[in-house]
Amino acid sequence: MMKKYITIFLVTGISYCCNNTKDPSSVTNVNRDTAQRQIPAKDTSAVSAESIFSITDTFQSQNKKNFVLSSLKGKPTVVGMIFTSCGYACPRLTSDMRNIAGELKDDRARVNFVQVSFDTDRDNPDELKKFAKQMGLDDNWILLHGSEQTVRTLSVLLNVQFEKDAEGNFSHSNVISVLDKNGVLAFQKEGLEADHDETRGKIEDLLK
Question: Among 42, 55, 110, 145, whose Cα sits 20 to 30 Å from the Cα of 152?
Fold first, then answer.
């Protein structure tokens, strides 16, 4: 069944093609024209309702610790898929997630915030750690590196499309996903600098 979802995902094909830069903090100086090729998220009606906890493969965190997705169980989880050498979209998406975390205030500790890299070749834990520092993410954030197949499977479950180009960069959907306490997709918001009142409201509902 999982192979079926992956096949559907691969042929439906693309959000922003990011320029290559190692300084995500410079995003405010990047013109929006650098956002080139959009890959919209697929219709969520075609997406599996399977929990991401069905993925049993081991990731590595930015702190070089082995990590399995089932360890997120028991809390709502906010997920973004990014790559650290992205010059525009990924830093903006990260900022959006950081703003959502800040708006939750005292409830922040009751929610997982996770970023998973598309770039399985370059985004090792050291690069993820560097990105977290540049973006002002504290140790409560979880940044993950996984195998190519594992990342692709997760992207299918999260309705996030991506395509690698010849230079090793990625065009991808810019989607923030909210999962329930059992790792099942509950809500998504697509777009950069979007209004996330509804996103925050959904998280608060899941905390009740």
Answer: 110
